[in-house]
Amino acid sequence: MTDESFEQVAAVMAEAAEQAILPRYRMLAQQDVEEKSPGELVTIADREAEAILAAGLAPLLAGSRVIGEETCSSDPRLIDSLGEGLVWLVDPLDGTGNFVAGRPDFAVMVALLRDGVTQAAWMLNPLSGRLARAELGGGAWLDGRRLRASPQPPGERLRGSIGRFMPEEMQSNLAERLGAGAERLPGLMSAGVEYPMIGAGERDFAYYWRTLAWDHAAGVLFVNEAGGKATRPDGSAYQPTKEGSGLLAAASPDRWEAGHRLLFGGEDAAF
Q1: How many CA atoms lie within 13 A of 151 on its CB side?
Q2: Which of these, 53, 114, 151, 253, is most buried using a 10 Å CB contact count?
Q3: Pairing relation of β-strands 117-124 and 107-114?
Q4: What pLDDT, on the 0 to 100 scale, is given for residue 268?
Q5: 16 close to 53: Cβ distance less than 8 angstroms
């Protein structure tokens, strides 16, 4: 993609943030929030932002389609076509729970897929304007700065987090292992906020259990193009079109190895 193309996508995302998301931050009315599934919220901001993204992204590439999280909630069959042709995969408001609670950790996420392979990625923090972007084989940038991973400094204690949605026994087990060998950071409940922090080395690693495509396609590409490592726990590539659980993302390959040893002790079959 050209720089102009990247900027066009970022402009559409900024429009969605400015028109649909930011005016409702800490201003939501009770009728603006629904529970779409147990523990999962959706707001008028999610839906309006997705509509703006769909209208703005589809014309940018001939023959492309937009598949958004909220549209998939209404028609789950749409996700079955994710591997067909050019697809803009959209999470209009990643971290809806934070948004509803008035917490600042939420993001707009877009990934461009060709035949199921992520080609480009964008993650925008509407409040700070922080923009992360990446292109397959072309690197990763954060606010216009090219990222290049560096090894973990000798003797430095790992800092990482574990996500939600996993079985309770696993959550307890991993939390105990993490606390015994690293500084446990709070999960921010927004992959679109966490992935840029990992790519920039502000967090060493994060382990996610639920790996829905709209939550992780953009972030995995970003971390890998920044020189980090984001894969399944067995080291295999994350593929947005394939179901599965477990994803370890780290700021550098050596941090990935150290985090894997800490959390799994060299084992991955159970995770």
Answers
A1: 6
A2: 53
A3: antiparallel
A4: 47
A5: yes
Are the beta carbons of 203 and 160 closer than 8 angstroms?
yes
Q: Express the helix, strand and coil content of the chain in percent, nearest 5 each.
A: 40, 25, 35
103 phi and psi angles, rounded to 5 deg: -85, 155
Domains identified in the chain and CATH numbers? 3-146 (3.30.540.10), 159-264 (3.40.190.80)
Mean pLDDT, the chain, integer: 95
Angle at Cα 113 formed by Cα 248 and Cα 53, nearest 5°? 100
What are the phi and psi torsion angles at 129 (to 5°)?
80, 5
Is the torsion defined by CA of 65, 67, 68, 73 positive or negative?
A: positive
User: Worst-scoring range by mean pLDDT, 33-42, 79-88, 211-220, 238-247?
Assistant: 33-42
pLDDT digits (tens, 9 = 90+) for 164-186: 899 999 999 999 999 999 999 99
Q: Is 94 helix (H, G, I), strand (E, B) or coil?
A: strand
